[in-house]
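Researcher: Next entry in the queue.
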Amino acid sequence: MADIVFKLKPAPTEADAERLVEAVENMNGVTEATLDTATCRLFVTFDTMRMGDIELERTLKDNGFEVATEDEVGFMSDVPGYTQDADKQEQDQAAATDMTRMNEIDLNGGLGAEST
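Model: Structure for this entry, 116 residues:
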């Protein structure tokens, strides 16, 4: 289980808060969601084996909210590096793709290839 806190914008009304909490609690893997309208913070407890913060953020956007940027204290998690791991995997995938493309160019007449 993991806990995550999202700082929302715009500030939710009471009706919006109820609708959003219900939407988040109905997600597969969420065990608890609480929204503090005074601080605009959504507190979520979820099973990291069943879902991740990306799905949570998508649900927030689908319900009309944005997550504050990092310099605005966007979200915090008790799972160190959880989102950083996803970013690292994406960067590694991009690097591997670039390396594969470079090797294909070399094999198909790139630098040092002689034409016959």
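Model: DSSP finds three helices and five strands in the chain.
Researcher: Noted, moving on.
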